[in-house]
Write a structure and sequence with these properties.
Blueprint (H helix, E strand, L loop, with lengths): L1 E4 L2 E3 L3 H23 L2 E5 L6 H8 L8 E5 L1 E3 L9 H8 L11 E2 L7 H12 L5 E7 L21 E4 L9 E4 L1 H4 L2 E8 L5 H8 L13 E6 L1
Parallel strand pairs: 2-11, 3-4, 3-7, 4-6, 7-10, 10-11
Antiparallel strand pairs: 1-2, 5-9, 8-9
Helix pairs in contact: 1-2
Length: 221
């Protein structure tokens, strides 16, 4: 592991990155549960983060104190293989002792607007997340917030109807909502992200630069 600056960690392989991030998450969870009796985390979708979830699925924690949220969801039927929640459930949560009532995912199957309103009702109970995980897309997008797309500033959850990547329709936490976090962990995994990384180092205004929370750290492979 190399440290580019105080909060930019560079790893040689996905497993070492995933293990380091998993340990950091578990440490924060332990501290949070000790201090306030619960821990909240916003998960990110995509293939690059699945090894992290596999490690967490085998880890020890006070799981009944965990509350799980998700940054975005694709507008697809429940159980569809391309939904973020489907993959996360299969790899981790279906076999976890985290109570089902503590898993707060976006119910895209309700319809775009209905799902947005339903998720906002859930998020109104949250003052601040402990951790938000964000995966960097090839174009610098995070969750389902894309470069040069305009989203309503006042909403906690927004609808994306013209995603440059399929499926076109998605539901996402807004920049404002994702920023309500103590820790933001940004994951940059894969060679296809190099152009976005270059722009990031040049301080170009990308979606990923608009979410910082109280403290941010970049995990880069």
């Amino acid at each position: 592991m190399k440290i580019l600056n105080d909060n930019w960690l560079i790893f040689d392989d996905k497993m070492s990155l995933s293990k380091a991030l998993a340990q950091e998450i578990l440490n924060i969870a332990k501290k949070s549960i000790f201090e306030k009796d619960y821990f909240s985390i916003v998960l990110t979708g995509g293939q690059s983060v699945l090894s992290l979830y596999k490690i967490l699925s085998k880890a020890d924690s006070n799981w009944d104190k965990w509350h799980i949220y998700i940054g975005d969801e694709r507008f697809l039927p429940a159980g569809h293989k391309d939904r973020n929640d489907q993959t996360i459930n299969e790899i981790w949560l279906d076999n976890s002792t985290i109570p089902k009532k503590n898993i707060h995912f976006i119910k895209a199957e309700l319809g775009l607007l209905e799902a947005r309103v339903e998720y906002e009702d859930i998020l109104k109970r949250i003052d601040k997340f402990d951790i938000v995980l964000l995966s960097l897309g090839d174009d610098g997008h995070i969750a389902s917030l894309f470069p040069n797309h305009i989203y309503p500033e006042e909403q906690m959850v927004v609808v994306e109807r013209s995603s440059p990547k399929p499926p076109k329709e998605r539901i996402s936490m807004s920049y404002q909502q994702l920023n309500k976090s103590h820790y933001i962990f940004k994951l940059i995994i894969g060679g296809s992200k190099q152009k976005a990384v270059t722009l990031l180092k040049q301080n170009v205004n990308l979606p990923i630069t608009r979410v910082n929370g109280d403290f941010e750290k970049i995990y880069h492979l």
